UniProtKB/TrEMBL annotation:
Domain of life: Eukaryota
Pfam families per the UniProt record, alphabetical: ABC_tran
Keyword tRNA-binding part of the UniProt annotation: no
Keywords for this protein: ATP-binding, Nucleotide-binding
Protein name: ABC transporter domain-containing protein
Species per Swiss-Prot/TrEMBL record: Rubroshorea leprosula
SUPFAM superfamilies in the cross-refs: P-loop containing nucleoside triphosphate hydrolases
């Protein structure tokens, strides 16, 4: 959520910069239902990429799903190239990745390899422009959707560093986000009491006490509480694909176990998780279908969890050399 809010906060000191929030953020959902136009990468001024799949270099390595043909692809990323909007520096240099329904994928890689950029590009963060390639989500062209449409289509992202929203109560925030989604789906909104009944059992899932709901969003939360709160948002809003960027960072083993347990409980044969992590430790708690190693804006290697073991034992250089 941090990345969602920082552009919003910084815009107050720089009025020329449009307010913008990426898709997955609950706040984005709330604000978008108030019909505020917050995003600066609207379809009109975004470089439009309409590569046909057949036009994509078939020699590019494709980090496929599990290879099980009976599984339906949920996310298909082909030759995705993206630059930083402001400087035009290329960060993603041809990412290929297929995540099928019910799969858990892990992306590992050194700092600066482009993992967070990939996740932010997928949710439509305005800091980046897609310059080549395609992304199909549930059979639809994801790149053609506004960030809030991506969220409504079932994409959720937990950012690396969730930030505080001073003065906004956690339960009100979640209630508004949830109602915004229900409204857009044509379902009746839940009042405070009904929402309380809906959310209370979900607190157990992330092992949080009820008073957690009455505190301001992330204000004074420990690192672990912030991560739990992200998973609570996921549990409340639901998602077909949850992208979890370093959900394990700053967590002690108990908090990690709780967060992993909550993520595992949300997994169904239909929905999928794309988790980004530095540490194999997380993969002991959330078992990945496939592990991808990212390097310099590309997925260089894909394998099963033994790839993460090899990485831990031998380091990135050895993996790249194989
Ligand atoms: N908005 C941005 N402005 C400037 N540089 C950026 C921006 N986003 C990413 N980068 C740069 O792109 C590279 C990849 O960053 P990132 O995707 O955060 O890597 P990772 O998550 O793998 O550590 C880094 O060198 C980072 O400094
Ligand atoms: Mg990162």
């Amino acid at each position: 959520m941090a990345s969602a809010l920082l552009p919003l906060l910084s815009s107050s000191s720089s009025p020329s910069r449009p307010l913008c929030l990426p898709s997955n953020s609950s706040l984005f959902t709330i604000l978008s239902t108030r019909r505020l136009r917050l995003c600066c990468n609207s379809r009109k001024n975004r470089p439009h990429v309409t590569l046909r799949l057949s036009a994509i270099d078939s020699t590019a390595p494709l980090s496929k799903g599990s290879g099980d043909d009976s599984k339906k692809p949920l996310l298909e990323v082909r030759d995705l190239t993206a630059v930083i909007a402001e400087t035009k520096q290329e960060i993603l240099k041809g990412v290929n990745l297929v995540v099928c329904e019910g799969e858990v994928h892990a992306i590992m890689g050194k700092n600066g390899s482009g993992k967070s950029t990939l996740s932010k590009v997928l949710v439509g963060h305005p800091d980046y422009e897609v310059t080549r390639g395609s992304v199909v989500f549930k059979g639809e062209n994801l790149l053609d959707m506004e960030p809030e449409e991506r969220s409504l289509a079932g994409l959720f992202m937990s950012f690396q560093s969730p930030v505080e929203i001073p003065g906004v109560n956690n339960i009100d925030f979640l209630n508004m986000a949830y109602n915004a989604r229900r409204k857009q789906l044509g379902e009746p909104e839940l009042g405070p009491l009904e929402f309380y009944a809906y959310i209370a059992p979900k607190l157990d899932l992330v092992n949080m006490k009820i008073d957690f709901l009455n505190r301001n969003v992330n204000e004074g939360f420990s690192g672990g509480e912030r991560k739990r709160n992200e998973i609570l948002q996921l549990a409340v809003l639901g998602a077909d694909l949850a992208i979890l960027d370093e959900i394990d960072s700053g967590l002690d083993v108990d908090a990690l176990r709780d967060v992993a347990k909550a993520v595992n409980a949300l997994l169904t044969p239909k929905n999928s998780v794309l988790m980004i992590t530095h540490y194999r430790r997380l993969l002991e708690f959330i078992k990945p279908t496939l592990v991808h190693i990212m390097e310099d804006g590309r997925i260089m290697k894909t394998g099963d969890s033994s790839l993460a073991e090899l990485l831990e034992k031998k380091g990135y250089a050895a993996i790249s050399a194989v």
